[in-house]
DNA sequence: CATCCACTGTTGCTCTTTTC
DNA sequence: GAAAAGAGCAACAGTGGATG
């Protein structure tokens, strides 16, 4: 990396101060143009590069304004007469710095008046004018150049890491952009002027620092200023040819005012550096911050003076690398932040979508489950209702049958009928006892039908013909397995048929007014088997007085007595035998029935 | 008014440093 | 080590003041 800033001027040898001559305005002179000399000189190559838009050297026919302006008093003379207590303003005024009456300011006006655009004969455009030296740099030009240097050299985005041409190209751009004098300054001119300004200001800074180090007693800031001026003026330099150049006073305080507070420029203000003509030594010194810190610390022990340079160590301006790094970092952080935000946003959106989907699925599932539960519950209720309905119907039939069985008038029954009735009654009683015992043991009513059917079926299977018909009844409410009981073995049925029970007896059964359904079912089965076995004629069957639910229509024209008689006639020869048996069994049944009635009374009680 | 001198701007050259 | 670039120096030219 190279720095376009010039270093510290070579060490001048101290010599006796020689009075310098400053412009004397005692007489005005017209400017003489000697372009011919420049054109003949091979070194004047720069003359050909200035084109339209620039201010050229003063025309030969014009008198320079500077020559008609009263110049300021002789600076050298003024310096000699300047009191030691002169303050800055007084000195600046005396030196013509910052004053409209000063020589330096007058030169500024001179240039403004001197430089004009030259146009061609037709006046259509600016043509290349005769080249001459541009006017002297004014205070404003110097200040502008210093400010330009600060701006360009401190730009962290570019810094000093650029070629000389690039750097001074930017310097020229900045300078031209703010240059109100109208004088076009070439890059080379700016470089040369800056070299002078920088060198002079560095020497001046070193002189002031030396005075601060001396810290003479009994002096105020003005005294120190004058001492610094004397030190500066005593500095002389010797050219390569051995020519000694006499010192002069510092004439660029306006530039120093601009530069003194800049950290980058102040790095080179050590007076000792003035004695280092060797660039290598200068480079080493500039890189050695510790020594500068030591010097600052020594200065820090003294009380500061208004005009003294602050030796505190302020923050160094950011450099090019730091600026680029921070920009890159900022950009990277922004990119990373944006990417992270996008990821977080996308993730949040995905979570929301999934959450909504889950909510929807869960709601639908809940609704479906609820509907299923409701459907199952309704099904269960329906089944329960049907079961209850069947159970109620079965119970109703059973009660009706029992009611019929026990309250039937058996006075007209023959022996067989009585036996059947008695057996049926006993069976019912057995069932009821068992049921009561079961209920007493905690069994439900559901067991009644099973026991009843099963029991009857089982009994039906016992080989009793008549009971076989009863088994069919029991199987009515029994499950299909128990229905097997209904279908009593054909042998048993045949046996029943073999009884050839008198038709009047059956007719009497039907005449009891039993429930049509019960009797129909019972009668149907009984009569189907019975009639098949008996082979009785339809007329006889019709005489039985079967209930309306009978499969065949039987007119109810016969009385009970007639029915018994017809049944007896049908039975024929066997009626006597049957009658005898009925009498025997009836006696026994009466005894049993009386006993049963007593038992029932006891249970009811 | 002509000339001399000093100053300033400009530019080429040289030295030093840095980079490849 | 060579090349490139920066910085300083010196010379030159232009300008203005002083002086005879």
TrEMBL record:
<feature type="region of interest" description="Disordered">
    <location>
        <begin position="568"/>
        <end position="605"/>
    </location>
</feature>
<keyword id="KW-0175">Coiled coil</keyword>
<feature type="compositionally biased region" description="Basic and acidic residues">
    <location>
        <begin position="315"/>
        <end position="334"/>
    </location>
</feature>
<dbReference type="InterPro" id="IPR029466">
    <property type="entry name" value="NAM-associated_C"/>
</dbReference>
<feature type="coiled-coil region">
    <location>
        <begin position="362"/>
        <end position="395"/>
    </location>
</feature>
<feature type="compositionally biased region" description="Low complexity">
    <location>
        <begin position="9"/>
        <end position="20"/>
    </location>
</feature>
<feature type="domain" description="No apical meristem-associated C-terminal">
    <location>
        <begin position="248"/>
        <end position="427"/>
    </location>
</feature>
<protein>
    <recommendedName>
        <fullName>No apical meristem-associated C-terminal domain-containing protein</fullName>
    </recommendedName>
</protein>
<feature type="region of interest" description="Disordered">
    <location>
        <begin position="1"/>
        <end position="70"/>
    </location>
</feature>
<feature type="compositionally biased region" description="Acidic residues">
    <location>
        <begin position="286"/>
        <end position="297"/>
    </location>
</feature>
<feature type="compositionally biased region" description="Low complexity">
    <location>
        <begin position="56"/>
        <end position="67"/>
    </location>
</feature>
<feature type="region of interest" description="Disordered">
    <location>
        <begin position="285"/>
        <end position="336"/>
    </location>
</feature>
<dbReference type="Pfam" id="PF14303">
    <property type="entry name" value="NAM-associated"/>
</dbReference>
<feature type="compositionally biased region" description="Acidic residues">
    <location>
        <begin position="579"/>
        <end position="605"/>
    </location>
</feature>
